[in-house]
Write a structure and sequence with these properties.
The protein is of the alpha/beta class and about 280 residues long. It is about 45% helix and about 15% strand.
């Protein structure tokens, strides 16, 4: 985040970014990009730091190093009571909410199998986190923004897998297609309140989630690292712009959608994939 970035009129705004504990993840990148633009940011994750995930205290420290205020909020985005508690905690600390980024997602794992082998539990977990979590947080945020009567921004992280199905991604694709439809409906409902609702649809990103995907999808005779490299090489062959997406690419779009410059954009699902999906 050290390079010079376009700056938007976001100073003093308050954002809530879910699923932001991973040091190399999309949520963390978005939180820091918004903080760089002067936004005070509350970051969420399900639980305290764990192996490979330095946790929310590190995210808050990075936000504050950029001159903004930060707040760590732990909780399950798919649990109604916990969501209400999280938004109460945010309001008690910051007094308002201007931007919600629904980034929390179920980890790749038992769901990355053919549908004929997909268990109900694995399918339900993906829908619970990705779809129900987006719904609950959006509902809570929309209620606050309507009460504030000053407009707002809701940004949902979907996927290009929500625009085109992928084999062995049945549960994931179903959840991301659902998020896109939910985004459109909510955008129409909240337009009169000057609250925009948009989705960002990343392609494959050079982030920590590739490791999870590689571990879930690799053949039995191939190591996770070898399959990860193979995934990247195959993806690069399909990307017109000739490189893998980075988390900053998604963060830059989120910052734009949060700004006044994007005030006339709503209900859109924006692909950030180097030209793979021309829609």
């Amino acid at each position: 985040m050290s390079e010079k970035m376009p700056m938007y009129e976001l100073s003093g705004k308050v954002a809530f970014v879910t699923g932001a504990a991973g040091a190399g993840g999309i949520g963390r990148a978005i939180a820091l990009r918004l903080a760089q633009a002067g936004v005070h940011v509350a970051v969420n994750d399900l639980r305290p730091a764990q192996a490979g995930r330095p946790g929310l205290p590190a995210a808050v420290a990075e936000i504050e190093a950029l001159g903004s205020r930060g707040l760590a909020i732990y909780g399950d985005v798919a649990d109604t009571v916990q969501v209400e508690q999280m938004f109460t905690q945010l309001l008690d600390h910051f007094g308002r909410l201007d931007i919600l980024v629904n980034n929390a997602g179920a980890p790749a794992g038992a769901d990355r199998v053919p549908v004929v082998e997909l268990s109900e539990d694995a399918f339900d977990l993906v829908q619970r986190v990705n779809v129900r979590g987006t719904f609950l947080c959006s509902r809570a945020a929309a209620r606050l923004m309507i009460a504030q009567a000053e407009g707002g921004r809701i940004i949902n992280i979907a996927s290009t897998a929500g625009k085109q199905g992928v084999a062995r991604y049945g549960a994931y694709c179903a959840s991301k297609f659902a998020i896109r439809g939910f985004t459109q409906s909510l955008a129409l409902e909240l337009a009169e309140n000057k609250i925009t609702v948009n989705a960002i649809c990343p392609g494959l990103i050079a982030s920590e989630r590739i490791d999870d995907m590689a571990a879930a999808l690799r053949p039995a005779d191939m190591s996770t690292s070898a399959y990860r490299q193979q995934m990247i090489e195959v993806a690069l062959q399909t990307i017109p712009l000739g490189r893998m997406a980075e988390t900053r690419d998604i963060a830059n779009v989120a910052a734009f959608l949060s700004s006044e410059q994007a005030s006339f954009i709503t209900g859109k699902s924006i692909s950030v994939d180097g030209g793979v999906h021309l829609d």
